[in-house]
Amino acid sequence: MGKITFFEDRSFQGRCYECSSDCPNLQTYFSRCNSVRVDSGCWMLYERPNYQGHQYFLRRGEYPDYQQWMGFSDSIRSCRLIPHQAGTHRMRLYEKEDHKGVMMELSEDCSCIQDRFHLSEVRSLQVLEGCWVLYEMPNYRGRQYLLRPQEYRRFQDWGSVDAKAGSLRRVVDLY
């Protein structure tokens, strides 16, 4: 079970809203979000309702302003609790859409996809086990995308506007 608290103002001030499960529309509870406290669980925050827009991965800790979670603005409109999964993690990356072209499989974190697989773009992927966070840039920086066990036939399926892929991290290591 997870617990996250959103605050309208920086440094945990102003109106707040506590959440313990997925919420597709947070805008009914607050108008802006400038700080967050994660008491338990790992969460993906979304800039727009219904899990759309920029995504921000947060684990247990305090985030006194939106820049601490690499936010572009104070707009958080939905959130999703990432299920804790013990055990193995596996995924396959493909250089082309629809799982075509060269395929690479991994089961560990990868800080630089370019160095390890000689790819700067991933056009499709398949998450076989566990949840992952895909980062647009190497060393776990840039835009973030939650990847759950399923097939992603094109990069738009995970919410990206392009096929840039810099690094991957298993969620289990982040609890």
Automatic annotation (TrEMBL):
Family from the record: Belongs to the beta/gamma-crystallin family.
Q: Which GO terms describe its cellular component?
A: cytoplasm; nucleus
**PANTHER family found in the cross-reference section:** BETA/GAMMA CRYSTALLIN, GAMMA-CRYSTALLIN C
Gene Ontology biological process terms from the UniProt entry: lens development in camera-type eye; visual perception
Task: Show where the Beta/gamma crystallin 'Greek key' domain sits.
Answer: 2-40, 41-83, 130-172
Which terms in the Gene Ontology molecular function aspect does this entry carry?
A: structural constituent of eye lens
Determine the domain of life of the protein's source.
Eukaryota
Which Gene3D superfamilies does the record cross-reference, listed alphabetically? Crystallins (2.60.20.10)
What keywords appear on the UniProt entry?
A: Eye lens protein, Methylation, Repeat
Please verify whether the record's keywords include Repeat.
yes
Q: What does this protein do?
A: Crystallins are the dominant structural components of the vertebrate eye lens.
By what name is this protein known? Gamma-crystallin C
- Keyword Transferase included in the entry's annotation: no
The cross-references to InterPro entries, in alphabetical order and at most eight, read: Beta/Gamma-Crystallin, Beta/gamma_crystallin, G_crystallin-like
Q: Which SUPFAM superfamilies match?
A: gamma-Crystallin-like
